[in-house]
């Protein structure tokens, strides 16, 4: 009987597949046809598999992917959780805006987590919220004080997520706060699969105790936007869609009667967001 499973890990023609209904994990070989066709499942793939014996099975079919992230290579992501901080380290808003553009470019929903709120004043938090909370879900968190952690559990529950964010913003601390010992839950089966192999570059979906999965490697580490089309960039700033320009194809740079530039002057679009757009637009033009 064919059953549906989720690929947690893939190595040398073996897939670690979690049964969708029972949560049991199986080591699965691949049908020969995959090799012939040059197809391989990737982490996050939903597959049909057949149980053979014990914890062994065989992958029969790979189901269509709804999306696919390149680095790390993961399929069927429900959301990218971008973690940032305004102190220790002070991550510039334009870095957050780059992450947001990269996530918009792959058409996956973005969630923003502002961590280290214990280091911020109410005013600093309010300024941040005034810029981002209309466009994206923003969660105020302190992994240190466990502030906002219960709400984050709801965000991650039953979804396939990846995290993104600069080094030191507290990604590991957050995962540890929402699910202590998460990274140690790799399990015996996975270890068997790894035996004698170099495992450092292999990514894996980790399962939360409360349900849901997270890629063990953060995405968008390079912050490289060169794959974004310069003409598309403006569509990746959701707040721009509220304003009209004289020219429908306006790039909001030098054109007359630009609704976006007017909105920035009127304080309806955050200056920092427009500056991020302006900078990225020119970066993309120069790259072409
Ligand atoms: N004040 C404060 N410090 C925090 C908080 N969360 C994490 N930290 C500290 O920030 C430092 C970095 O946290 P990590 O969880 O390692 O950050 P990371 O994003 O996983 O970093 P990389 O592994 O380099 O990508 C650690 O010293 C944490 O103790 C917080 O909410 N408040
Ligand atoms: Zn315009």
TrEMBL record:
<comment type="subunit">
    <text>Monomer. Associates with 30S ribosomal subunit, binds 16S rRNA.</text>
</comment>
<protein>
    <recommendedName>
        <fullName>Small ribosomal subunit biogenesis GTPase RsgA</fullName>
        <ecNumber>3.6.1.-</ecNumber>
    </recommendedName>
</protein>
<dbReference type="InterPro" id="IPR010914">
    <property type="entry name" value="RsgA_GTPase_dom"/>
</dbReference>
<feature type="binding site">
    <location>
        <position position="252"/>
    </location>
    <ligand>
        <name>Zn(2+)</name>
    </ligand>
</feature>
<comment type="function">
    <text>One of several proteins that assist in the late maturation steps of the functional core of the 30S ribosomal subunit. Helps release RbfA from mature subunits. May play a role in the assembly of ribosomal proteins into the subunit. Circularly permuted GTPase that catalyzes slow GTP hydrolysis, GTPase activity is stimulated by the 30S ribosomal subunit.</text>
</comment>
<keyword id="KW-0963">Cytoplasm</keyword>
<keyword id="KW-0862">Zinc</keyword>
<dbReference type="InterPro" id="IPR030378">
    <property type="entry name" value="G_CP_dom"/>
</dbReference>
<dbReference type="Pfam" id="PF03193">
    <property type="entry name" value="RsgA_GTPase"/>
</dbReference>
<dbReference type="Pfam" id="PF16745">
    <property type="entry name" value="RsgA_N"/>
</dbReference>
<feature type="binding site">
    <location>
        <position position="245"/>
    </location>
    <ligand>
        <name>Zn(2+)</name>
    </ligand>
</feature>
<keyword id="KW-0694">RNA-binding</keyword>
<keyword id="KW-0699">rRNA-binding</keyword>
<keyword id="KW-0378">Hydrolase</keyword>
<feature type="binding site">
    <location>
        <begin position="165"/>
        <end position="173"/>
    </location>
    <ligand>
        <name>GTP</name>
    </ligand>
</feature>
<keyword id="KW-0342">GTP-binding</keyword>
<keyword id="KW-0547">Nucleotide-binding</keyword>
<keyword id="KW-0479">Metal-binding</keyword>
<keyword id="KW-0690">Ribosome biogenesis</keyword>
<dbReference type="InterPro" id="IPR031944">
    <property type="entry name" value="RsgA_N"/>
</dbReference>
<feature type="domain" description="EngC GTPase">
    <location>
        <begin position="75"/>
        <end position="221"/>
    </location>
</feature>
<feature type="binding site">
    <location>
        <begin position="115"/>
        <end position="118"/>
    </location>
    <ligand>
        <name>GTP</name>
    </ligand>
</feature>
<dbReference type="InterPro" id="IPR004881">
    <property type="entry name" value="Ribosome_biogen_GTPase_RsgA"/>
</dbReference>
<feature type="binding site">
    <location>
        <position position="258"/>
    </location>
    <ligand>
        <name>Zn(2+)</name>
    </ligand>
</feature>
<comment type="similarity">
    <text>Belongs to the TRAFAC class YlqF/YawG GTPase family. RsgA subfamily.</text>
</comment>
<dbReference type="InterPro" id="IPR027417">
    <property type="entry name" value="P-loop_NTPase"/>
</dbReference>
<feature type="domain" description="CP-type G">
    <location>
        <begin position="66"/>
        <end position="223"/>
    </location>
</feature>
<dbReference type="InterPro" id="IPR012340">
    <property type="entry name" value="NA-bd_OB-fold"/>
</dbReference>
<feature type="binding site">
    <location>
        <position position="250"/>
    </location>
    <ligand>
        <name>Zn(2+)</name>
    </ligand>
</feature>
